[in-house]
Amino acid sequence: MVDKIQDEQLAEIRRANDIVEVIGEYVQLTKQGRGHSGLCPFHHEKTPSFSVSSEKQLYHCFGCGAGGNVFTFLQEIEGWHFTEAAHHLARRARIALPEATKNTTHKTSMHADLQVMKEAHTLAAETYHNVLRMTEEGAPGRVYAEERKLSAAQLEHFQIGYAPDHWEALTTIFSNKKWSLSLMAQCGLLSARKQAEGYYDLFRHRLMFPVKDGKGQVIAFGGRAIGADQPKYLNSPETPLFQKGKTLFNLHDARSGMRQRDQVILFEGAFDVIAAWQTGVTNAVATFGTALTIEQATLLRRNVSQVVLCYDGDQAGLEATRKAISVLEGVGCEVKICLLPDGLDPDGFIAHHGAQSFRLHLEKELMSVMMFRMHDRRIGKNLQNEGDRLRYIEEVMRDLAKYPQAVTREYYMRQLADEFGLSIEVLREEQTRFRKEVAQAKRKEENSFATAPSERKSNIRLPAAYVQAERALLGYMLRDIEMVWRVSTQLTGQFNIDAHQALYAYLLSFVSRTPGANMDLFIAELEDRDLARLAAELLVQPLEEPCSDEAFRDYIKRIEQYPKWAQLLAQKQAIKQAEDPVAAAKLAQALQEESLRLKNEFASS
Known about the structure:
The protein has 5 domains: 2-108, Alpha-Beta Complex (DNA Primase, Chain A); 112-241, DNA primase, catalytic core, N-terminal domain (DNA primase DNAg catalytic core, N-terminal domain, Alpha-Beta Complex); 246-361, 3-Layer(aba) Sandwich (Dna Topoisomerase Vi A Subunit, Chain: A, domain 2); 380-450; 465-604, DNAb Helicase, Chain A, CATH 1.10.860.10. Helices cover 57% and strands 11% of the residues. It has 28 helices and 16 strands. Strand 10 and strand 11 (233-235) form a beta hairpin. It is flat, with a radius of gyration of 31 Å. Residues 100-110 and 449-462 have low confidence and may be disordered. Its EC number is 2.7.7.101.
């Protein structure tokens, strides 16, 4: 696939797309020394272990081992082939590629169906939007939009549209374009008839909200019924483009505002986001009327530190808030809660109190998680009743016992003491008891997953000398093409680690068939993702530059001698198991002499 784009073009594309900027579109990166760090997008973590080097134009995760260059990052995170990543980066940098290359790519790509699905969604969004704005068929949608007080700016910004009350509006358009209607059903725009052959439009007589992926591509829709149609809200089904639990409404457009404030407002539905945008809130996203998932929470944590939960003020909203707090804290988010009064949703609050009051409420009425829990514990209790009062105090004290910060515990215990006329000393004594219970429960949980001592020791053991030597030489070869030729003329054997030998073989092949090879493109050409990760890891390892002659000889010697040492160890093991003591003694003497010879040979080299 790589040879379909010239090496010179690939080098130009890579130079024009700084890896920090590209990865920064997916991950919130923080400057750290000479590089940048953030939460790894390839595995769940709370503490950043993902490193990006602008100098080397590489990324590497010290947690899961993911690594590579700007091409492999897009391949990993988007599931693209190399040429798809290259074309995306070319478009991003406004670099023109030959038309023949593009055509070949589309014909040979395994993702041709996905491309058609994306084009269909783009066309559907444009169609719905134009129907709403400019046609007689769109009149019911315009009337409903006016009833919901949606402004022209909101309709335009969110590309809101109207699905006409026809069974085959989109079906006819897709048929005229000669697109597979079966494929259109697979991507959630059509539905197959049950009683007869053929297809019909999934969305009809609904106000339509396009859902975009992280790059701004429409991949799904949310549809609000107009009138008494059921269900009231209809979302696109799960498709190859759209997984509800991994997507957030408005994330692409809100990302800039989120990062400016290092904060996101999380709502329950699209209407809430649209209403909030009209008041000037540009850092809001929403789920799709379902519980927040770990994947969605991780998406938020990659972009911001603080999440403000602003769910409906009814009982269902409170329950959703409780669940979301646990998920968000689990991925390391700082959580604040904005409770809306009188059971209102955000749209209703704005209608009753106005835009300015809503913005002030979002800024001034934020609760910490502990404040919310204290508020939540009061619901359903009569604190004038002694039993309810004691139960409330104990529940709050148990919540506080889970906080590691002594200052936090003291702050809220003083609130309890002041409100109920209690002695702070008594509360501290009770808190000590609850803290012991929490610690015991934690130890019990840790013990159930404890690693055996021998395993813990092996996990922190440094690599053997020959492994370090192989890693160092490969690192130098990845940096300098001349080192590849130098190693090939000096190394008489081969690398002892299979993955190292495979990478070395690929390196030799690459430089042999590519005169003046650009080593920056080597990782991009590796189709084996594990080897690409290994290469990226070796490139970011610290090495003395340049490699001295003495160090080079030492590396070669350690690699070549390891098989001999391994053979000695195997023979020593055989001695232990030997039944003939005389033969064992002779073999031991021979091994001792061979071991001494190898040591002298290494010392003299």
